Amino acid sequence: MLEKAASRSLKDKDSVYAWILLKIGKYEYIVNHDYDSTIKFTKAALQVNNASNTGSSIYLNINAFFNLGSAFETLLSYPQALKNYDSSINLASKFIDTNTFALDARTAKANIYFSSGDYQKAVEESIKGAHLAEIENNTSAKTNFLNMQAQALFFQNNIEASLPIAYAALNASKKINDAFELATAYKTLALIYNNKKVFDSAKYYYNEAINYRLKTTSYSNIGADYNEFGNFYNGLSDYKNAAKCYERFLYYAGKITDPVDRSVKLSFAYLNYGESHFKQNKLTEAGNLYLKAMNTLKFNVSGILQNPPINKISVFGNRAELIITLMKNKTELLLEEYHRNNNTAYLKACIQTALVTDSVITQIRHEHISEQSKIYWRDKTNQFYAIAIEACYLDKNPSLAFYFFEKSRAVLLGDKLNELNATAYLPEAETKREESYQFKIVELEQKLAALDEKDKEFQNVQLQLLNAKDNFEHYIKSLEQKYPLYYQYKYADEVPKLETLQTFLSKSKQCFVHYFFSDSVLYALAIKADNVNFLRIPAAKNIKKQIATFSELCADKNRLNSNYNHFINLSNSLFASIFQPLNLPHGRIIICTDNSLIPFEALCSDNNGKSFLINNYSFDYVYSAGLLMQQFKNSAAKGSFIGFAPVSFSNDLHVPALQYADAAMQECAGFYKNVLLFTYKNATRNNFFTNASNYSIINIFSHASADTSSNEPVLLMWDSVIHLSELQLLNNPATQLVLLSACETNVGKNATGEGVYSLARGFAAAGIPAIAATLWKADEQSIYKISKKFNQYLSEGMNKDEALQKAKLYFIKNSGKEKLLPYYWANMVLIGNTDAVNVDAANHNYIWWIAVAGIAVAFLLFYIRKRFPQKKG
């Protein structure tokens, strides 16, 4: 019947009939909750409207796209929903009287991003929505967007940014006397104060939230508020009050009329109620509630040992918080059951559940757009990987443990590099266009960073940046659809097998060590070419404290000097706990650490400071085994060595001169042919971006600035700074090694599972396979001397790790007593690929050859004169 109606309308060019179809579709949505019929009727309305000879109605199209978005959203088909909401927004933005649809679509998009756990995108959508609401003088919509922004910031763990916006939302809600928005603002404040451990305030705000929410008929939100209140009591171990809240949640969730929303909310209720029982060691009750949570989502599992097919979970994958927490909790429950009764069926089921959960985490990561949201979920899932690795240890399964170690490491960096490799399958014009989008975003990011939030220009630039990001995201989506190979390589997520790494190690004659910290245990995989040692080292919290103190002492020469005996004892203690048990032979070691990086070469195998590990080992540090073995598609180099040494700096940078940098750079460059140097005023930002990526080795003698806060690390050139985010603009680098002889070039904000967001990581993300970087503020003379010998040994064809080790040993042997402190020689570390660099070395033997040739000529002349004496005339 629908097809007949549609075809008749097309033939008759009856645009009026399109409105009838649209209204039928809306009726199916509101009254019958038949979302498939909604989609069919609405699509037919669009088809009829756009085929009409009398002219299509733009207003109908805007309305239809919005309705399609709503239907797809309800069915949890978020990509389709977002696509239709975007179509509605794009059309509505062209007509003044249709902005109500644009506001509603923005609200829906923000809700989708929030529900799917892409909290940064929810923040960005809320900012754009609030700006549009202000233009429209729609205070109700603006209040809604403020609430959404505050909640999304909270769930990103950006508490300090969330708090003032939550209060602004509360004040705005009071002005319009909107009970729903008041409840939302109070709940956000409750979440914030609970996080701050101000429990009395949190309890007050939860009660206020529920009191106002009960004035509405939104059973879904009433239930959600009781859920959060239950979580509050659960965190305080007040299980009685938690149970009361969860029971109220179940009651209101059962009253929700929309079947999809009802199943999601009921599942949340069973999940959190089950978690409360788990904390009380009531494992059977917890397991039964987890089963109810799964089967409410129609996973149809008959027992806690079973897992649903991944395709059933994928339907709800965009409910990230629900699905990941549910599957993580089930994994944890099964492990605890094994600990209690030693039944291997629970251990096997735990491992299988972990594999399914990991697949869901990967899917959600690929669906999320913003880097900040992905980082949030890396932190959120870290405990899950600890559970999975523990299960593998108990199962004596190092191969599967290696898989989970790898999946817990630097996967976002891996995604960046996959994307770089995928661009090889794009036409050159598309690659250039992609670069122009990236350049525009970086340009606006730096412009925004330079403005104060109170500046009138701030909001304008902020909106320009958000729109530029949107345009880039839509462009990337179009590339994924147009070029299948690009899509395939961009989302390649293959983890190398343990045997593949062992083959690699056999050829390179190296050993590899994976470390993973849980709350109480340090796990270590010591991998050799022919065997694997899987260790579980207790007292992880104490080891973490020792590592922090060790790093602080290394970085402070005065403290190190005055507390040297303490340092040596600490160094020896760490050696005994985290390195000695690995039983590794002397030689080349690759370390993959869990977040923090320390110079292992400064660990001491005795307690009198005579036997630092640098004497017997070369160390390399990597983000993951997969990234170590990844083949970089570097372009051909135009030269061997490029150096940047500003020496002095522009006055507005306010940094001291590095008076020996020029001479040191000249010495380093002397070991190579095909050299290009930029010193003094020629060491500019523009010369760096124009020339650096054409050379095999980039050597930089300059200042850098970095700390562990959210401030972006910067590298200083003579005239300006280079931000971490700008390093992505290095285009298809031929570079095999960047030598960052500046302060704190491997310092930055630490992201769980990803490591340090440092300048070194920035170069790695640009596709450069190896970086030599510093861990603390460098001693100028020491770093230059080590860099000189490092370059000499590199030019002679040595592997990078062995060249750096040999350079440091030379420095130790040929320096004064004070320079024996690790502060001077342990600062620079190698990160990434260790292979020798392919360069043209300068020939330093030419003088010797000239001397030999001169001697040969003299001998020949002497011989001729002796053999053929001249006759006197």
Plain-language structure description:
With 873 residues, the protein is an alpha/beta fold. Helix content is 61%, strand content 9%. It has a six-stranded mixed β-sheet, with helices on both faces. It has a five-stranded mixed β-sheet with strand order 3-2-1-4-5, sandwiched between helices. The longest helix has 27 residues, at 456-482. The chain starts with a helix and ends in a 6-residue tail after the last helix. Mean pLDDT is 88; it is low at 845-853.
Brief characterization of the structure:
With 873 residues, this protein is α/β, with parallel strands linked by helices. The protein contains 37 helices and 16 strands. Helices cover 61% and strands 9% of the residues.
SS field, number of helical segments: 37
β-sheet strand percentage: 5-15%
Determine the structural class based on helices, strands and strand pairing. Answer: alpha/beta
Strands, total number: 16
Alpha-carbon Rg, integer: 32 Å
Q: Distance between the terminal alpha carbons, to the nearest Å?
A: 129 Å
Shape category: globular
Q: Quaternary arrangement of the chains shown?
A: single chain
Q: What is the residue-averaged pLDDT?
A: 88
Tell me the helix content.
55-70%
Give a short account of the largest sheet: 6 strands, mixed
Low-confidence stretches: 845-853
Going across the biggest sheet, name each strand in turn.
Answer: 7-6-8-12-15-16
